[in-house]
Amino acid sequence: MRGGTCTTVTGVEYCGIMVSRRAKLFGFRLYLTTTLDQKADQWMLAPAARWDGRVSPALLEEVWNLIVLGDNALHDPVSIDWLKRQRHIILIAAQRRDAKEPWPAEVRRWFNRFRRRIESALSVLCTVFNLGHPGSRSLSGLLVRTATRLLAYELSFLRCAILCPAQN
To answer: Where are the alpha helices (DSSP H) in 6-73?
Structure first.
C-alpha cells in the first residue's frame, strides 16, 4: 500500500530505502541469519528506517559464542563491540569499498563465497516464497505470513533430507 494511505503503521521510522533496488520501502524490513547450509536460523522484523548495524544486537540477543558474517551495512563499531563483550560474538562485516586497509584477495574470495550462500537463501525466500509481498492487511497478519513462509522454507530442507538421504 502507498505510504500515505497506510493505517497499520504510521511515522517516519517506517520509511526506508532499499539500496540494492534503488527504491523506497515503507513498512518493515526482515533481518535474517542463516547457517552455512542456507537454513534460516534467527529472524526478526524491524521498522524499515532502522539502520542495519543497530539491529544486529537485537537479532543476536539469544545466541552466544558465534562468528557471524554480515554485509557492509553492519559496520557499527558500538554494536560490534557490545556483541563481542556481552555475547562473545565476533561479527565480521564485509569491508566497504573505501576501506583504508583492504583485505587480501584470498580473504575477499573466501568471504564472498559464504555471502553468496546467504544471498541465495534470501533470493529463494523472495522468489519462490514471495516474501517481499506478503499481502497482509495488519501487523499480526504480516507476522503470521512471514513466519509461515519461513517455516515452509525450512520444511523444504526436511523434505529434501527425507527424499535424498545419500546427500546428507
So the answer is: 52-59
| The pLDDT of residue 93 is above 70 | yes
Residue 122 has pLDDT above 70, yes or no: yes
The angle, 0 to 180 degrees and rounded to 10, between the axes of the packed helices 139-163 and 105-127 is 110
Answer whether 89's CB lies under 8 Å from 83's CB.
yes
Cα gap 88→165, rounded to integer Å: 35
**The pLDDT value given to residue 44:** 94
The CA R_g of the chain, rounded to the nearest whole Å, is 17
- Residue 17 CA: distances (Å) to CA of 22, 81, 158, 161: 7, 26, 35, 38
90-93 and 67-70 strand pairing: parallel
Q: Enumerate the domain spans of the chain.
A: 3-50+95-167
> Which CA distances in Å does 63 have to 5, 67, 72, 80, 148?
38, 11, 21, 14, 23
pTM for this model (two decimals): 0.82
Q: Which three cell numbers stand for residue 60?
A: 543476536
